[in-house]
Amino acid sequence: MRWAALVIIVFMPVNKGVTVSEEKHIVWVSLQYRDKQHEFVHDLAESPLLIGRKLLRRLFDVSNSSLRNISRRHIEIQYDEINQQIWATDTSLLGTLARVVGDEPQQVGPEFLYHHERFLVKRRMRLRLQNEDDGREPDDVIIGLENQNYDETRPIMSKPASWDRMLNNLRSVRAAHLLGMPGNGKSTLAKKLVAPNNTLWQRQRDRQLGGNILTGWVDCHLLPNHDEPLWRTLARQIITSFMVAADEQNIPELRQPIEAALRYFEANVHELNSEMNSVLRGVLRTIFKQGNARALIVFDHFDTVFSEVDKFMLYQLFQLHQWSDAGEEIQFVVVTRRPLDTLRDDIREDGVFEFVNLFARHVIRMGCVPQAEFHKLWREIAPEFNYVNAEQLDQLYALSGGHSGLTRELFEELAVNGWLSHDPDHWGELLRSVNWKQRPSRNCMAVWHAMSQDEQDAMRGLMQSEVPAPPILEQFRSLGILRVDGTLFSPLFAPVIGTNNPDVVKSKRALFISSAEQRVFVGGQDVTPKLNGRKLDVLLYLHSNANKLCTYQELIENTLPLDSHIDKLTIESERGSLQRTVSRLCRIIDPKRSYISNEQGRGYKLRYEYNSS
Hints:
By secondary structure, the chain is α+β, with helices and mostly antiparallel strands. Helices cover 38% and strands 18% of the residues. The strands form five sheets. Strands 1, 2, 3, 7, 8, 10 and 11 form a seven-stranded antiparallel sheet that branches.
């Protein structure tokens, strides 16, 4: 069945005479249904905002039958005076799909499924309320919410020591790598580097790094999927991010020259060569000379694209860092879940090696907080509850394991259920009474989905008293999933393991390859049309030699056109192209590398854990 969606989209607010910085209970709203759109500002101090069938009928002049799955009080938005935050309550029958978005809210897509839930309204958020019209056809309505007073740095606990280490790395070597599993505050810590002017974070950043800093923020997870090489998309985003930063930091003299550089890039740079590097250097010179600022480039969620970035592009970024004319004025931060040297097969090749080595010695691991430091971070996350004593905090620590995002989630659970007014002695008991098996922790789910298939299988075995191989155990400890004593970082992680039945997972992810028809299915979906070019040829050759190591030379010889001249030089020059092909192939059929494994320096193997014919 196809679902229609009611979505709330956030646009640039219109000045309605409201001073946003002084009005923490103001929410900007945009409703879009069919070909009509309404934007307005609502003061939650006067009344909650109800978004449902009644409001939509009045604004869009439609009948009840057009909004057959929309409730009268579908979404209720309220301001929490105690915590000074805005909450939305979903009372729908089908559930609301919500997505937190960045500064360019272009993609509409579900991130979490809420059903009769309350959730925090962050700076920009999209909601999709599932709906069908009277003909049972999709009939999308889009809703956007903007809470301009939402503090990006508060919802996940920050770590002052990590903040200082990051600034020290940037000051001394101009490079830092924030590494950790979901929810441990990597991106939140990095976001402090783009804090607005006249904030504590901005003043500390500029004081430590020596002068005005213009930060180009590139969220690789949200890179547009244009039909063009990834290096070009990445370069464009770097230029655009500096233009956005100049606007936000009110440096108007930078807007025109950076915009001119972007136009030149679009018109003239179509190959990955020195011309692209010259454009980026020109933008940086503009920042240095006309903006009197230093440049900082942050790549958030960099592991989502790192395996596909051309090695020459990585070398160009490394060269920018080493640029002698720039002195000490260019700095880089990358944010990933996994170490860079585990994300590619060609880390020893020129270009890749230099880039990876730049960050290898400057890694800041964002793990769970030690119990001794938990009370400090609790006071940062909930300063209005600083009276909670050490014994009461120990109960919370026993549930969260010091995981930053999970601790915040527990605090939100207390707030949502009205338990903050209870005696803190009972908070632990109340939180344990929640049915976490029926409604697993979203932070624990994020950690689970970030694990590879092998890691998930090993974790299930561990829950059944099977001892994994020492390297796997060490990997779990380094990721912060297991404590030193071998126990889970949080008891709330156990229900997540239990709810992900291995048979269900395999049936959803099962890979089926038909050599005769040259078709490929993943989870029952035909993905053959996505396997254009060389990707299908590589997969079929691996399939014909399943469970055997196929060397780089064998794969190259058997996937190039029949009339190709193949010699030692060809093998060497085609190896990088093959590795990029396999990376793209895995993104389509095997993002967790459950089926295709790489043996460093030798080749690839397709394991027999799939269906074939």
